[in-house]
Amino acid sequence: MPSVKDVAKLANVSVGTVSKVLNNDPTVKQKNREKVLKTIKQLNYVPNIYAKSLSSRKTKMISIVSSTLGDEFHERLVSSIDQILSENGYDSIFFSLLSRERLKRFSNPSHFLYQTDGLIVSSLSLTKMFENKTLPTSKPYILVDTRDALNDCAFIDNYYGGKLVGQNIKLYENSKVYILGGYEPDEAFSSGVFSERIIGFIDELVNNRGFNRKNIVIMKVGLSLKESYEFGKKFTPNQRHKFSVFALSDIIAFGFIEGMKTLGIKPPDNYSIIGYDDLSYSENIELSTVRQPIEELGKVSAELLLKKINNKFEDKIHKSLIPEFIERNTN
Amino acid sequence: MPSVKDVAKLANVSVGTVSKVLNNDPTVKQKNREKVLKTIKQLNYVPNIYAKSLSSRKTKMISIVSSTLGDEFHERLVSSIDQILSENGYDSIFFSLLSRERLKRFSNPSHFLYQTDGLIVSSLSLTKMFENKTLPTSKPYILVDTRDALNDCAFIDNYYGGKLVGQNIKLYENSKVYILGGYEPDEAFSSGVFSERIIGFIDELVNNRGFNRKNIVIMKVGLSLKESYEFGKKFTPNQRHKFSVFALSDIIAFGFIEGMKTLGIKPPDNYSIIGYDDLSYSENIELSTVRQPIEELGKVSAELLLKKINNKFEDKIHKSLIPEFIERNTN
Questions:
Q1: Tens of pLDDT along A57-107?
Q2: Which CATH number applies to B4-47: 1.20.1740.10, 1.10.260.40, 3.40.50.10860, 3.90.330.10?
Q3: Which residue spans of chain A are classified as CATH 1.10.260.40?
Q4: B63-102: per-residue pLDDT in tens?
Q5: How many angstroms separate the CA atoms of A109 and A126, rounded?
Q6: Are A62 and A118 in contact (CB under 8 A)?
Q7: Helices A225-233/A250-261 angle, 10° precision
Q8: Fold exhibited by the domain A158-293
Q9: Rounded CA gap, A252 and A182, in Å?
Q10: What number of other Cβ atoms are within 10 A of residue A31's Cβ?
């Protein structure tokens, strides 16, 4: 196996120059850089970051774990985290928790996940994932979009968000309020945010607006556009009055509204609906909703983790951000 | 820094048992497993996979690079790749190419990206990314969703897909055909799939259906639901006839259709529209479209990479999959 010395010799430069090229040092002359890279290819030289990491034990990499990256919320959250890390000289690696098989591998403390300088775990409830309710590592980590008593975490206050919807939703006499969503196919990968929104919402309606708990109906609806559309298409509220709907995510609201349109039933004429998230498309369809400060959450989480890595924290981190109600045209 | 011997001593087990626990060996007694994990926590022991990798040079990990994971196409593609890798004992790590800053880091051959056993690069045109048009590594890799003459690749035939739309789209006398999409904010992160769809479509219309090239109008529309909705809301075809639209992705079709609805203009009564992708929601809104075999593409790519890793290939890989036209109600 060729060594860094072989590369230096063949490229006719010093070992220090090869090292500089490998570390992206901008002081290397372009001509030397090209020579070194060409020689590396020629010799099939594999630079040994393992050995390097072994000595310094700093990888300058952060692991980001998320149940999914395939939606706007997580894409924006991760982009925002990534930007702060990048500005501070850190690279990020994503681990998606797609299956219980992988969850099992993540319980192994020698998994690569735990070999970076720290971890950010998004939208997953660790208390459900691991037996001892913490990650099997001594590396610093922070949970994002999850409220957790035992672990450092940053989140948007979902109980308060639910209360905001409860304060603002239009109510109709002798009529029902429907809560849509909350169905999670596998509890291990849920974060509890939906339950908190539901509790805040019901607390507000029942305790502060005197609404009868019996007229609040929680309906399980899948989180995809497809499922909420199918649900809306078949939804028949058992009454002729206007009714009220709290969709636990904007995606559920989009699908439900489109599905009900096929029955000729539309907000705000036939019913009131409020979503949750304020995705980029929500403004276009004038959806009343709760805006989550997603970018701020990402920024705060990344900054807190970097402080932990630099040993600037002793106390428990339990950072809560506040969402905002956005009134538009569907309520 | 504590060693594996310290862990074994304190846990009162052999070094071999500690090693088995670290490698998730199922033959270890549950009681011993718990003792070892507890001791690891207690000593803050960091298992050294670097040293392990150094000797075997096999990480059993694959790097997956994608410009984005935040849409259904890429989420399904990556899930499918991940499943095959997992079935074969490989774990995958995602690298998202969000910025030119990161692209620069990826040109460094010592980046962690190249320290896994192989790479799958999705929807990125390497010819635009790196000067010498290949990745700076001797590790096996395969490009997915990209047609590339110089590198091993697997893709769905976008030229043929464009021809399928050209064969099936309804045309109206003295009327125009609009192609929507194709705008990519940064060329470095595009894969050329849109251009291929456009060329196949125009070839079919002009050469086989005798349609006048002058009546085909290509309009740049952003790829998000928000942008295509805004575009549809302001779109005024310069005629009273029915017209035809080829939306280069289903997302563009969704937004455009909703935007035009605000003007009271709907398919198939006022115009014909065909999308591209066949996302899960497309069936609900009865969108005519081209179905991409996304799961098959992921499966084939992962299998080809594993064969390359096991040295079972000498020849260039250039695997092409065929899309399928799905007629529904908007054409």
A1: 678 889 999 877 678 898 899 989 999 998 998 988 888 776 777 777 788
A2: 1.10.260.40
A3: 4-47
A4: 998 877 678 898 899 989 999 998 998 988 888 776 777 7
A5: 15
A6: yes
A7: 40
A8: Rossmann fold (3.40.50)
A9: 10
A10: 9
DSSP B189: G
Report whether CATH 3.40.50.2300 matches the domain B158-292. Answer: yes
**Phi/psi of residue A82, nearest 5 degrees:** -60, -40
B225 touches chain A (CB under 8 A): yes
CATH number of A57-155+294-321: 3.40.50.2300
Give one DSSP letter per residue of B105-133, joined into a string. Answer: HHTSTTSGGGGSSEEEEES--HHHHSTTS
**Contact criterion met (CB < 8 Å) for B93 and A93:** yes
Nearest Cβ partner for B226 among A45, A91, A284: A284
Mind listing the pLDDT tens digit for each residue in A291-311? 999 999 999 999 999 999 988
Strands B153-156 and B318-321: parallel
Residue A243's Cβ-side half-sphere holds a number of Cα atoms within 13 Å equal to 17
End-to-end CA distance of chain B: 68
CATH 3.40.50.2300 domain residues, chain A: 57-155+294-321, 158-293
Please compute, for residue B117, the number of CA atoms within 13 A of its CA located in the half-sphere on the CB side.
Answer: 21
CATH number for the domain whose boundaries are B59-155+294-321: 3.40.50.2300
Burial group, residue B296, by CB count within 10 angstroms (0-12, 13-18, 19+)? middle
**CA B320/CA B45 separation, integer angstroms:** 48
CB contact under 8 A, A70 and B72: yes
Q: Alpha carbon B293 to chain centroid distance? A: 12
Chain B residues 51-90 with CB within 8 Å of chain A: 51, 53-54, 57, 59, 61, 68-72, 74-75, 78-79, 82, 86
Its ipTM equals 0.72
